[in-house]
Each structure stands twice: as structure tokens, then as C-alpha cells.
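In this section we walk through a basic example: taking a raw amino acid sequence and producing a predicted 3D structure, encoded as C-alpha cells. The instruction is simple. Fold the sequence below.
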Amino acid sequence: MPMVERMLERRWERRLLCADLVQVEWEDSEGSTCKTSAILEDISRTGTCLQADIPVPVNALVRVRHGRKTLEGTVSYCAYREIGYFAGITFTSNQQWSQKVFRPKHLVDPAKLEILPDVDPQ
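The resulting C-alpha cell sequence is shown next.
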């Protein structure tokens, strides 16, 4: 049986599922700027989850860029899961996301999804 990584839920407000490409920047321990592209997985007023091809250091201050819009935050976790690295970003206290800041190309509120009854395949 495979080991399942469990993570403590840190955001208390509703998360919206999303998908869009963003750029992520941070400084490494030597002060050099590191950059990577990432996919937005979900977003809330106070944070986001990103999927990237490379790990983003935990506790690093990052800038998440979407077009001309930028949100800053701190990496609270980064874990490898079969298809890439997933990084949780907590936005800085003076930053909050809203659809007015930027709207990802694909944005779904799971609370508004219709639940269909089970259908017997026969």
C-alpha cells in the first residue's frame, strides 16, 4: 500500500479551483533571482497552491506574476507528488487576491457545482 502524504489544512476560507499559467520568482540563498513557470491549482483570498517542475524553497518570499499583476507571499510547503512539485503560498498580510486583482482563465467554485446522482451503468 503506497504511503499517502497528509498535510494540515492551513487556509480556512473557501478555495476556488483554477488553472492558469503564472511566473514565480524568488531569491536563492546567494541572492540570485530564480524563476519558474507554474500552474495555479487553487486560489483563495489569502493564498494559492501552485504546481511547478522544480521545487520552490519553503519560507522563501515569492512573487507570483500573472500578466502585469503580482502577488507576494511566503512558501508554506513544497512537496513532490507524481506529476510535479506542489507549493502552498500564503500571501503577505498586505496582499489579498480577488477576481479584481486577476481572474485565472479557468476558475470554478466547488460549492456551486451540481452533484449528480449515482447512475447504474446497466
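Looking at the output, two observations stand out. The two ends are 31 Å apart (CA to CA). The first strand starts at residue 16 and ends at 19. In the next section we compare this with other chains.
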